[in-house]
Records
---
Amino acid sequence: MGDARTIAKAALGRDPGPLERTSSQSHQVYVGADVVVKLIAADGHTRLDREIALASHLPPGLTAPLLAGGQHGDVRYACYRRLPGSAPGMGLPDLDEPAALALARQGIDKLTALHAWTPPAEAREVLANVSGHGGYTGKDAFEDRIENLDVPPAISDGLKEIASRAPAHVKTTVPVHADCHWDNWLADGPELVALLDFEWARFGDPLDDWFFLARFSGPHLHAVLGLIAGETGIPLDVLRAECEVREASHLVADLPFDRQRVLRLLEVLVAGLWWPQ
């Protein structure tokens, strides 16, 4: 915690008070009364640098204000002003459908603002410079990956069926968050306050974000999907197919790292998760 306290004190110009470590899969994260500090070893992945580079350029009111970012000794860090609220959580576990849709509608508004943002040159360079994001890059590439998979025939056949509905090409011209599941949002009661963690942000297609918003809405997936279709004007069947192939692409990319879990998810996916039963 020593690094976090030193960083927070320098950013605030005073002692930050108590800092509590909170759970994170890829960083050490410390939360104080009015500050959040993210740390990672200097020789770890560089996605935090990406987030820091974008933070000051993003549309106003979209994310938490960055107080400071850089390297301190053997760690890289980002220090943010703490905003009120907490993450709604994967699957929106504590929300009934009206409350889930109220948050989703606000999420659509915030993501639409991101998608309409015209980044300055410095931010454009960051958004364009990404590789290996695991998302959908086009039908030919997806079909090639399916052909080379070592999976049960039922899963392979299901993936080929998904590919048959997939678009041939994708946009790479719109700023997208590309990881906007509900653990990366901050809500203060019924108000959606901010979108956090821009480490995967890149140029892509708005559908890259609509997929995440719907997929991690738990039992509200189809209701949120319908809301997105209504708010964006995307035909619902088109939206289902676009989300389906994006999920398939992410799972196929994760297969070498967690085979048994991903195979179980692929079985659910090819059974028709995105389509009414």
---
Amino acid sequence: MRPFAPRPTTPTAAERVRSILAAAHSMSVVSDGTSTEVRRLDGTGAMGHFHLHPPFEGTPGAQTTMRVPVRLELTDIAPTPVRDRLRARVTVTGLLSAPYDAESTESTCLEFGQAVLESADGRDYVTLHTLQAAPLDPIATSEASMLTHLVDDHSELVPLLLRLIHPHPEKGMVRALPVAMDRYGLTLRLEYSRTHHDVRLPFKTAVTDINQAGPQIHALLTTARRLSHTGNLLA
């Protein structure tokens, strides 16, 4: 009998990189000593602008076209007005078969080198194989609108979600806001006068379709309402 494998409650580094690439609205392309800001991603994310290929594997001398080193730099910024909004940085390195053309409307082929994810958890290196194998989070491209909707239109629900945190937040907390959401759960940022820290509220099951996100959030709220804790957490 196989040992029980706990269900994941946080995305892997490869999943995070893929989500950032999919949801990006802008990026910096560094090539030939020039940095170009690309802002016309048109909702397709970075991978709608670049097409990733495995490293060239051929016989020595078969690659006759000069290849140009390139680096894609992306930042993952929290959509809500939390303290320290930078959530992660992603750098993708590789080679182009021709100098980068910022005016091209065609997807640019990029021979993949590696992807690096830098976050509060440290630095992770992601290969093309693990990146392509990682499932695309169905919430990734809707996360920003969903979180801003929660903060702008349903801010009264955030204190309710605090009931799910164990142990309860320390005294002196001045604010709590959602800072991230992915297929596995919601993350709240608890802010104090001189510091802050994040708390994960996992969903009961991972979201496999965007239409499941709403019911999962409602399930968290239903659980929170059932709890007996009613103290003033912001006192």
